[in-house]
Every structure is written in structure tokens, then in C-alpha cells.
Amino acid sequence: MTAPTPCRVLVAYPYLTAKTREVLASTDVPVELVVDSGAYTAWNTGRSIKLDDYCRTIADMKPAPWRYFNLDVVGDPEASDANYREMLRQGFTPVPVLTRGGTERDLNEMFETSDVVAIGGLNPLRGNQRHGYIKRVVRWARGRKLHLLG
Questions:
Q1: Which are the contacts of 122, defined by CB distance < 8 A and separation ≥ 6?
Q2: How many CA atoms lie within 13 A of 62 on its CB side?
Q3: Are 107 and 117 in contact (CB under 8 A)?
Q4: Left (φ > 0), alpha (ψ -120 to 50) or beta: where does 146 sit?
Q5: Residue 19 and residue 39: Cα distance in Å, rounded?
Q6: Beta bridge pairs of residue 146
Q7: Backbone dihedral angles phi then psi of residue 124, each to the nearest 5 degrees
Q8: Average pLDDT, the chain
Q9: Model pTM?
Q10: How large is the average pLDDT for residues 136-145?
């Protein structure tokens, strides 16, 4: 008999409550948990997320998340990059988030440390503006794996 295919579940950090963890741990279906930092949720509700709190949660989770994103900062590619580098320095292996305003060079550097890069900053964009941004980043990626956020 073959093992069941894992169900991949994405949960934003602000919603990763004890009850959510309990439900995920108690299911009969194997779960591969993906943790989104929830930066947009926090920004949209006027809350903030501390990098140390986010890292501590990731480190303490049992079982460990299958994947997790770095803590990005909406509209601030420099702060997002600083958080990513700090997470790497601490031994974490997050999926990096290219925040709108990031460059092709930034994207290439992220692919040096990860097989997939997330693209943030899509939510406020509309219509052709969003499509143009996505097309540009996909062109920069040259066939490498991307995960679009928002």
C-alpha cells in the first residue's frame, strides 16, 4: 500500500493559532504546512510582526513546516531583504520574497539561496499594472520557480 499524498496547506502567521496547529496535527491526512509571514495581513490591519517572534514560532513548530516565507515588509524591499538575510544568518531556510521595487539582480541573488522565490506586492496593483509587473518578474526568472503572493 502506498502512502497517501500529502495535502499542502498554506497558513498566514497571524492565523497560526494553537487551535489551527491542533487541527492540522490531528488530521489523518499527512499535511505539508507552508507558513506565510502574514506581512500583508498585518500591514492591512495596522499590526506589526516582530522577526524574533516569527522565527521562534517557525523553530518551535512540531512538526516543522514544510516551507515558510521570509518576513517581508510591504513596500520596503530593503527591510524585506534585511529580514531575509537575518533569517539565513540564524540558520533558517525561508523562501525569499521579492517585494515590489526589488530588481532583477535581487531576484537572481535570491535564487542563489533558494529553489523558489515568492513575489509580493501584487495586491495593490490592478489590471495592466499587475500583469506588466508579473510578466517582467517571470521574464527575469527565466523558467525558475516562482510563487505569487496575494
A1: 100, 130, 133, 134, 148, 149, 150
A2: 1
A3: yes
A4: beta
A5: 21
A6: 117
A7: -75, -15
A8: 89
A9: 0.88
A10: 96
> For residue range 45-55, what is the model confidence (pLDDT) as tens digits?
888 899 999 99
Grid coordinates standing for 94?
A: 525561508
Contact 38, 12 (CB under 8 A): yes
**CA angle, corner 53, sides to 107 and 38, nearest 5?**
50
Cell of residue 76, nine digits: 520596503
Task: Give the residue from 132, 57, 53, 137 showing the smallest Cα distance to 96.
Answer: 137
Residue 126: predicted pLDDT: 60
Tell me if 86 sits within 8 A of 96, measured CB to CB.
no
Measured between alpha carbons, how far is 149 from 40 in angstroms, rounded to an integer? 9
Region of 84 (left: φ > 0; alpha: ψ -120 to 50; beta: rest) is alpha
Cα separation, 37 vs 41, whole angstroms: 9
